[in-house]
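Session log. Operator J.P. requested a structure for one protein chain; no other inputs attached. Running the standard single-chain path with token output.
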Amino acid sequence: MLKIAGAITRLNLWIASIAAWLIVPMFVLLMADVIMRYVVGSAEIWTAEFAQLIFGVYAVICGGYLLAERAHVNVDI
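Structure written below.
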């Protein structure tokens, strides 16, 4: 059972290292949206929505990493 738990933890860490790169396309999309809004006068409709979708995937994927690192929010009573 410990081997399975260790494998899942390693998988979570590996996936989180890949998920860290999701910030780059999200940043590029939002910057393109801002530049187009000021240069052209209107932005593409899909850029902000797609950036939100990327952020949603990022948040879900990083949940496993936070669990592996014991970094979730804790409340002591």
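Operator note: The mean pLDDT is 87.
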